[in-house]
Amino acid sequence: MRWENLTQLKSYSKLKEAARVDVPAVMSGESGAERVKGYDIPMGGGLEFNYAARPVSEEILDILQELSDEQELGAKYEALYNGERVNTGENRMVLHQLCRGQLGNDVFDGDVNKREFFVEQQKRVAEFAGKVHGGEILNEKGEKFTTVVQIGIGGSDLGPRALYLSLENWAKVNDKLKMKAQFISNVDPDDATAVLYNVDIEHALFIIVSKSGTTLETLTNESFVKDALKKAGLDPSKHMLAVTSETSPLAGNPEYLDSFYMDDYIGGRYSSSSSVGGAVLSLAFGPEVFEEIMAGAAEEDVIAKNTDIRKNPDLLDALIGVYERNILGYPVTAVLPYSQALSRFPAHLQQLDMESNGKSVNRFGEPIDYKTGPVIFGEPGTNGQHSFYQLLHQGTDIIPLQFVGFRNSQMGNDVIIEDSTSQQKLSAGDQLTPKSLGALLAHFENKVMFQGFTWNINSFDQEGVQLGKVLAKKVLSKNTDGALTEYSKLLGIF
Amino acid sequence: MRWENLTQLKSYSKLKEAARVDVPAVMSGESGAERVKGYDIPMGGGLEFNYAARPVSEEILDILQELSDEQELGAKYEALYNGERVNTGENRMVLHQLCRGQLGNDVFDGDVNKREFFVEQQKRVAEFAGKVHGGEILNEKGEKFTTVVQIGIGGSDLGPRALYLSLENWAKVNDKLKMKAQFISNVDPDDATAVLYNVDIEHALFIIVSKSGTTLETLTNESFVKDALKKAGLDPSKHMLAVTSETSPLAGNPEYLDSFYMDDYIGGRYSSSSSVGGAVLSLAFGPEVFEEIMAGAAEEDVIAKNTDIRKNPDLLDALIGVYERNILGYPVTAVLPYSQALSRFPAHLQQLDMESNGKSVNRFGEPIDYKTGPVIFGEPGTNGQHSFYQLLHQGTDIIPLQFVGFRNSQMGNDVIIEDSTSQQKLSAGDQLTPKSLGALLAHFENKVMFQGFTWNINSFDQEGVQLGKVLAKKVLSKNTDGALTEYSKLLGIF
To answer: Which of A169, A414, A425 sits opposite B194 (nearest CB)?
Structure first.
């Protein structure tokens, strides 16, 4: 396998020379309409990827295909899902796709078949959720639990929260909302206090999510919640479960009703497909809804195997993004879902993309001389139109946009105004369902992976976060007052 | 008054030549500690503006002072608050500061004293809120209203929502939460449906906010809510009030319990200080809390009059931002509140800044050849640390950061872990109160204004938003299916 820097590739030099595209011109008239029809690829879950309005021509697409071949992006994906340790610095496999399907060979860690391990965990989660929903697991008074509260930060929060919010109203309308979910993440005590204020604590189950079992913010919030439970005369061990690694202090600990496992081969920002997302979403919506999300993601993972970039929306989105970043020099990308249910999806993508590809050394630790991951930001689209679109329309920088939209609303409730329903005002695409949501999740995960391979960086470590944790502990051990100042000073990036 | 482009200024040429600052170096050791103490300016509401970690030296500060003098930033602010029509393209005064205090001369529109007009509106809002809280205005069954729902989009949503969330928990703890507030903004029917799902509609008051009374998204949501009220057997005119301009179809309309007025001199993104924020916040927290917010903002507005940049945090923040944008070339700024209560404040700032200063023509409509407003994004800080900070630490671009933090939590509820309370882990600064919140709001409004003056652009029009509205209507009138495609095509900025 070749692991070359982007600028070493022959196709990259060709890409620089390719004629630029005048997007408004190529999008006009009949040939524009043809382009809209032609530049469209089917995705998983009934979604479509339309790239007609992005700055590519047939010439550029041909060179991007060459680049994909030269950088062996398909082979690298294959290596990843067959269990090669592509997270090199940390010497780890990258197995989030394995949680939702088997793409290639069996993957072993020692003599553990990892696919079986993940299936087993999800089976245990499903059984646990079934017992909670069925009334076999009850609170101290013998009453049913009605709320589930996830306590975690970063990937243990953003992905599961975005997915929960994406389906909360769909679940209400379709009678799938088994338990309402809430999330505590910020170490700011106002966050936990506010959530607890709104929760019927007697009927609440709390999931502590920490892979290592030592994440400072999460343990702080856990002890905060334990205090609240005790104050309410409740036994914390009857209200808490843990999602952690098998070797952590939280695993199999009698302080919890049960514990479910992920492992070091699932990065935090990719962990929605593991028990980190599985436990809270199975409790909230039922295990079969979580399985649907995973089925949509698995469908997208299979599509991502295609080495023809014109048939692989994840790969093509990645390559066009590289073109926009490295050739056109755009530093920021906006993600604009035309769906209120996806209100926190941009925050999840922000972590997924920026934490994965915000790197300035290649996978061998050598400094690189080209740009990698852009800044990602976004808000639901119709709101954005009344907000920051001014700068997108008329500012001095060009910001690539990614719209996400659906043909039908989730709740089937609509109103006619000015000869169109409000949903008609929104967009094209099908409904946001568990399956299309899973495909959307996987699309962006795969895009980020392909970009990381293209840039020859390790998208799966998180040295910056580790650095932050070390600094926070170091500063706290000495002097709490100056924490931020010290932290900013060490950052040195104002 | 001089209205010169930035690049025409002598001081701008000097700024380009000034020696760059090595931030980690100047922040180290004892001289670094001195810098942290010295580069600190008192703000309104007990806040402090610390710029020690930003890339400025005494030499650069001196040139920024020259630039401020040469571009007459102080005089332009004075002209604005004395009622000059600085929103030139739209030929309008800019009077949001007048809602919260009188900074200069009386301001007249014809023979209307505008300060008296705004005071009168807020008095009417306060009386109305008093009647609702006191039980004089009741629902059809003679019961008290318990919830207020604001229906608006853009500035009618983002600012008021951010302010409400900033104080919701503070209000709970301090027994100031008179009514819970909710917000409907997105035209996606799932947004309104979801809010109505959670609202006790019989005891809910709805505020329709639209200056023109013709905003499509807001009217769509209004008719949606009216349908829901009727379906529940309720009389919409007993559940709705309007915030609008005196000349709009909503004004004095018997379909509403009452109507309160703002005018064309209050831009949407600056409207939190008018009835747009006043009505919902006075109903939620009581008029005296809204007055406290305004008092904090007024305090900051007075500080912003100082023409010595080292004593004016709003002006200095603006100028350092210009230095970062135009000399250092940074395209993005992150705002990172270390306070969960400020979770939606970055979304408000995104609109405020990007809609005001995302312009590529100067105030005379001539194209300019330098960068203006950057992309603004942000999330609460401790969450960000576990998310996109990776790119801030180790990505290939430099992203200026603005931290916002407070010494004490709002809810006084805390927990000791690893020898420090969780609040100690957060930051320095006082508590987030109505007054400090008002000062923070005004700080950023004033910063954006000073940057607009520096760039010689009109920060107070919104041509991009108007364009979006026109395009949306145009496309809807023909063919709803292709709306997004058409829209994107016309944008041409993928």
So the answer is: A169
Residue A482 has pLDDT above 60, yes or no: no
pLDDT in tens, B141-161: 999 999 999 999 999 999 999
Query: Is A358 close to B382, i.e. CB distance below 8 A?
Result: no
State whether residue B492 is helix, strand or coil: coil
- CATH superfamily of the B6-71+306-461 domain: Glucose-6-phosphate isomerase like protein; domain 1 (3.40.50.10490)
Whether residue B98 contacts residue B120, with contact meaning beta carbons closer than 8 Å, is answered with: no
Whether B421 has a pLDDT exceeding 70, the answer reads: no
Q: What is the DSSP string of A322-362?
A: HIIIIIS---EEEEEEE-GGGTTHHHHHHHHHHHHH--SB-
Which 319-348 residues of chain A touch chain B by CB within 8 A? 331-332, 338-341, 347
ipTM score for this prediction: 0.85
- What pLDDT shows up at residue A108? 97
Residues B69, B307: contact at Cβ < 8 Å?
yes
Query: Can you give B274-338 as a three-state secondary structure string?
Result: CHHHHHHHHHHHCHHHHHHHHHHHHHHHHHCCCCCHHHCHHHHHHHHHHHHHHHCCCCEEEEEEE
Contacts 24+ apart (CB under 8 A), B310-315: B310/B41, B310/B61, B310/B65, B311/B41, B312/B41, B313/B41, B313/B42, B313/B43, B313/B49, B313/B443, B314/B442, B314/B443, B314/B446, B314/B447, B314/B450, B315/B68, B315/B73, B315/B74, B315/B446, B315/B447, B315/B450
Active site residue A386: yes
- Taking the model in full, what pTM does it have? 0.89
| Local structure of residue A55 (DSSP, 8 states) | S
Confidence of residue B171 (pLDDT cuts 50, 70, 90): very high
pLDDT at A1 over 70: yes
Architecture category of domain B121-294 in CATH: 3-Layer(aba) Sandwich (3.40)
In this structure, what is the dihedral angle of CA atoms A127, A132, A135, A136, given to the nearest 10 degrees?
50
Does the annotation mark B127 as catalytic?
no
Query: Which residue is catalytic, options B90, B305, B469, B486?
Result: B469
Q: How many CA atoms lie within 13 A of B354 on its CB side?
A: 32
Superfamily designation of domain A108-294: Glucose-6-phosphate isomerase like protein; domain 1 (3.40.50.10490)
Q: What is the pLDDT of residue B481?
A: 38
Rounded Cα distance between A37 and A32, Å, is 9
Say if residue A425's pLDDT is above 90.
Answer: no
